[in-house]
Amino acid sequence: MSNIVRATMAIGLVAFISACAPKMEEPTYVETPVTTEPTYTGKYN
User: Fold this and answer.
1) What is the distance between the alpha carbons of residues 7 and 15, in angstroms, rounded to a whole number?
2) What is the pLDDT of residue 37?
């Protein structure tokens, strides 16, 4: 076989294997507040 045919077959094989690979789930991030905001308590009037 010529080198061009071998290279084409190798690229096709890699593309086929990567297309059949299981898909990984994308991580989901939930934004939670790090600290609560201070509230006015009326302590220093």
Assistant:
1) 12
2) 73
Tokens 């059949």 correspond to what residue?
A: 20
Q: Six-digit token pair at 44?
A: 């220093």
Burial class (CB in 10 A: 0-12, 13-18, 19+), 6: exposed
pTM, to two decimals: 0.47
Reference 20, options 9, 30, 12; nearest CA is: 12
**Torsional class of 42: left (φ above 0), alpha (ψ -120 to 50), beta (otherwise):** left
Measured CA angle at 9 (ends 7, 12), to 5 deg = 110
